[in-house]
Amino acid sequence: MEPQLKKKLLLRKFSSIEYMEEFRDYHYRALAAMEEGIEYFYKHPPGENWHQWHRSEWPETWEERAVKNFKGMQKSIDEGIQKAQKDNFSSIRSAAGSFNGISKDMDVMGEKWWGYIPPEFRERFVNNLSAAKQRASNIWRTLGDYWKTPDSVLKETVTGPIDEKDLMRFLEPGETT
């Protein structure tokens, strides 16, 4: 695909309601995996007194900080999509930009409790969180025109994998490849 057309189609994709909904859905699945993992931990606590761990390692810390922040973010994403459907993209752009800040806040939280539950919970959380982050980044850069260079949108190391066949859906009537 010719680079100029590919760029145009990627920008359409990253600013589409459908792509914003993918962001929302991956975010929601990450939140659900985290909540389910915490619930599993409480139902199947380790044999040791885990309250002797550093507080940052407790699942309560994740509930108080991460779950609370993710629920607030989910609401912001939902509201942003509703406004975007009415051609007001500032809220979803802000939510996408703020999302990266929330995930950075989690860097100071311990992860010891994850080691005491089946790994599927963490895998689901991490995989969905990663997919949500990628979409948030692409949405934020596109709606805010924050691409480092005009051709950055073409770099899969920046955007994630690009499926050229899928991009064809974003051709407008009368456009050809």
Major beta sheet summary: none
Specify the structural class.
Answer: mainly alpha
* 3D shape: elongated
The succession of helices and strands, N to C, reads HHHHHHH
Number of strands: 0
Q: How much of the sequence is in beta strands?
A: under 5%
Which residues sit in consecutive blocks of at least 5 with pLDDT less than 50? none
Instruction: Name the CATH class.
Output: Mainly Alpha
**CATH topology description:** Four Helix Bundle (Hemerythrin (Met), subunit A)
Q: Any guess at the CATH architecture?
A: Up-down Bundle
- What's the end-to-end separation, in Å? 7 Å
Indicate the mean pLDDT: 94
Number of domains: 1
Give me the Rg, rounded.
19 Å
- The share of residues in helices is 55-70%
Number of helices: 7
Sum up the structure in keywords.
mainly alpha, Four Helix Bundle (Hemerythrin (Met), subunit A), 7 helices, 0% strand
Show the helix and strand layout:
Layout: H1 3-14, H2 17-43, H3 59-84, H4 90-105, H5 119-143, H6 156-159, H7 164-167
Helix pairs in contact: 2-3, 2-5, 3-4, 4-5
Description:
By secondary structure, this protein is mostly helical. The chain has a single domain (14-143), classed as Up-down Bundle (Four Helix Bundle (Hemerythrin (Met), subunit A)), CATH 1.20.120. 64% of the residues lie in helices and 0% in strands. The protein has helices at residues 3-14, 17-43, 59-84, 90-105, 119-143, 156-159, 164-167. The model has no long low-confidence stretch (mean pLDDT 94).
